[in-house]
Amino acid sequence: MRVAGIDPGTIHTGVGIVDGSPNTEILVFYKTIDANPKDSLPNRLGLIHAELVKIFETWKPEVVAIENIFFYKDFKAAVKIGEARAAAMIAASRCNVPIVEYLPTRVKQSICGNGRAAKTQTEFMIRQILQIREPLSADSADALAVALCHLYMSKFDRLKKEEVSYV
């Protein structure tokens, strides 16, 4: 299964693509889409959308996993993240790729074993799991974490369906 993970932001949007089988996770691609903070919000969202469409058309993920908004003290920041999420969802929809959403705590739990893990812990685990030698931006690491979370949750769901009940 090929999964694209998205960590949405109006200035930095992380995207990571992984292939997964029952026992392996393979890094395919990762990038941080950097928008100019001096550009207008509509222009930044347009850039995010256009870049994601190119990435989806090139790498052909079977599903897009995106981080859901959990809780923000800053209402304006939450709205902007929601707008970046919308740009990513529209790009996926335009490319006919289904979308799944995960809470940040679920993503961190699946990667680090702790739903409140620090960003540095997440980056460390992503680099270990996918055997990445160079440092990752926080946005790319988070995007890869979301993609891996979906792979792990899909495996779990498959195993649950295959359980045999004994009487």
What can be said about this structure in brief?
The chain is α/β, with parallel strands linked by helices. Helices cover 50% and strands 20% of the residues. A hairpin with a 4-residue loop joins strand 1 and strand 2.
What do you see in this structure?
The chain is of the alpha/beta class and 167 residues long. The chain has a 5-stranded mixed sheet. Strand 2 (12-20) and strand 3 form a beta hairpin. The protein has helices spanning 41-59, 75-94, 104-112, 119-129, 138-162, and strands at 2-7, 12-20, 25-34, 63-67, 99-102. The protein has a single domain, classed as Ribonuclease H-like superfamily/Ribonuclease H (Nucleotidyltransferase, domain 5, 2-Layer Sandwich), CATH 3.30.420.10. It is built from 5 helices and 5 strands.
